[in-house]
Design brief:
By secondary structure, the chain is α/β, with parallel strands linked by helices. 36% of the residues lie in helices and 17% in strands. The strands form 2 sheets. The protein has a 7-stranded parallel β-sheet with strand order 3-2-1-4-5-6-7, sandwiched between helices. A 6-stranded parallel β-sheet has the order 10-9-8-11-12-13, with helices on both faces. Strand 11, helix 9 and strand 12 form a beta-alpha-beta unit.
Length: 379
Amino acid sequence: MRILYAAVDQVVPGTVGGSVHVTAVAEGLARLGHDVTALVTQGAGPFPPGPVRWVAMPPPFGRKALRWALAGRVTRLAREVGAEAVIERYYNFGGEGIAAGRAVGAVTMLEVNAPVIDYEGSPKRRLDRALLVEPMRRWRERICRNADVIVTPNADILPAGTPPRKVVVLEWGADTDRFSPHAAGPLAFTRPPGVVALFAGAFRSWHGAVHLVRALRILRDRGVSMSGVFIGDGPELTNVKAEAAGLDHVVFAGAVAHPAMPACMAAADIGVAPFDVGAHGPLSLGFYWSPLKIFEYMATGLPVVAPAIPRIGALIQDGCEGLLYDPSQPHALADALSRLLDADVRQRMGDAARRRAVRDFGWSAHCDALDEALRRARA
């Protein structure tokens, strides 16, 4: 099948989850025999080698809110490549891929990884209502209505009335061949001594990196030694570093290119995903995203420590693939980490996490499901 993948605001190559997702999906569909053309913003360095045709098509002036203005260019390219299917990565002001697909008679698939509906108190919702006819809501609902297939990790973030028959609930994944307990390669940091707890991801308030620092401090005050490695960059990095002042064996590695991440994860002992759902308004709708870091931790064979919230509980069985803690209790994260000081416990949970990732959360399984959904929609 000739597939056009419109993800124009995602940077490839890149280090954030969206970049990884787009690259994995484009390459995974190509490996299944599809002819894939992907529209993205080009990052630093060349596009990944391989069968995917990468086209640099950033949003006008670098503004995501102007994505819709690319509809004409995307449609022309869809005709040029003879697209039989168009996949668009959803954004509030997008719709260019879905419009192009409809214009050329292709099957259309919308990837929804962020809420289409507004949460209560959303500034965007207040502005939309002030405009009386709610143009943003109408536009978002139109994009969803015109898509033949909607792929999302959580159907609760879709507009009310979305037909269940066209919704495919699907998690993100990990490259379970590259991310493994035996991954080797140069490290972006010098491994600190002892048991190493790893945080990898964007330093935004709701990613909760500061909670891992506080837990390490609690352990130190108890006389327990555990090291911490923090990989990534973002607006909260300065605050997290300030919180870590005076703590021994805490390493900040900065942003790391994704090809180097398997070795970095394999050098750790515990993967921590200390999400703080109260720090991000849209999460009042529920934990809607599919956490890439958790799947990569699991594929690497790391026991995962994360808050006990419903979506995460569906990914990690407490006491099996990792430990879930009550985020309302100030010492709960530290208590969970202390239970993983035992190497045998870490090994047992890490092995279970690896098995679960290979079985349920590989990118290959994700792309197989996309392939099936596209073929079913065409039929």
